[in-house]
Write a structure and sequence with these properties.
Layout (H helix, E strand, L loop, with lengths): L1 H11 L15 H11 L6 E5 L2 E8 L2 E8 L4 E8 L6 H10 L4 E10 L5 E7 L3 E7 L5 E8 L1
Antiparallel strand pairs: 1-2, 2-3, 3-4, 4-5, 5-6, 6-7, 7-8
């Protein structure tokens, strides 16, 4: 079951859109779980993708996304980050596997169970790819499209 949620989160990494509503479809239990993790003063805009609730909120100057399932469980938190701050080992892995590709979007997801999952959009001038690098360092192509 946990793998299903991690796969769902990975699919959502680049699908988070800020067409957020006011949260009227979000249960009070999910909102309470959010408050327990991020505090009462944190204002969030809510969306729902598949069976995952996403709270978009600011922490300092950073746009964050907290993920919850329909059973009120906190799944983790993610954020876009500057691709220049990508860990060196991951950059090397991408360069070796996709020579000439440039990372133009990077996302870091911290599952509630620990670890980090990265998502990247890369392009080599002809093909765009969505990549996921899991907690074990395994690089997976999630989507591929020609320009």
């Amino acid at each position: 079951m946990k793998r299903f949620f991690l796969a769902a989160i990975a699919a959502l990494l680049f699908a988070v859109q800020l067409n957020a509503g006011n949260g009227e479809n979000v249960t009070n239990e999910i909102k309470s779980t959010f408050v327990r993790h991020f505090g009462e003063d944190t204002k969030a805009a809510w969306t729902k993708k598949n069976d995952i609730y996403i709270a978009s909120f600011k922490k300092g100057d950073t746009e964050m996304h907290a993920f919850f399932d329909e059973d009120n469980n906190y799944l983790g938190v993610g954020q876009y980050f500057n691709a220049k701050n990508t860990p060196v080992g991951i950059v090397r892995q991408i360069e070796q596997r996709f020579p000439g590709s440039i990372i133009y979007q990077a996302y870091e997801y911290n599952p509630s169970g620990g670890g980090i999952i990265y998502g990247f959009l890369i392009n080599d001038g002809q093909i765009s790819r969505k990549l996921k690098v899991d907690m074990n360092g395994e690089l997976l192509i999630m989507q591929k499209s020609k320009k």
